[in-house]
Amino acid sequence: MVAVLTALNLADALYKTQMELGDTSEKLEILQSEMQKPFEELNSLNQEVEAVKEQYTKTQSEYTKTQIELGKISREWAKAQEEMKDLSVELDVSRQTIDDLQNKLFENQIELLKVKKELDEHKSRSGYDKQDKNKGSGYKPMPRNQNK
Q1: How many CA atoms lie within 13 A of 102 on its CB side?
Q2: d(CA 99, CA 112)
Q3: Which tens digit of pLDDT belongs to each residue from 89-132?
């Protein structure tokens, strides 16, 4: 009877241990699956980091190319500004030359008018009349230009 009782106790203990083992196995599987999720997330995040690194490298390369292009454009712009300054100086010189020439033209027109007046006075003093003038004596009065 002791042997039967011991066998029943052992069977009961074995049953309880098997039940605990089943529960523990289920808990272990749940914990392992839960533990696997962070590793999967970590792998996913690592892939995203690699993609971002690649994009950063491409962007950095484009930035470098843009900086080089900007440098070229800046040099061209500076050159264009220098050319514009040179042309501005040349324009100022040309304007001054035009002003000087206009002044000389005006002075020459005044001088011409004075000479014509002197010629007219000299002819009137020397007896030159209008009939001789119309006959083609060679004198043709110049139209007076009052442009200033």
Answers
A1: 9
A2: 20
A3: 999 999 999 999 999 999 999 999 999 999 999 999 887 555 55
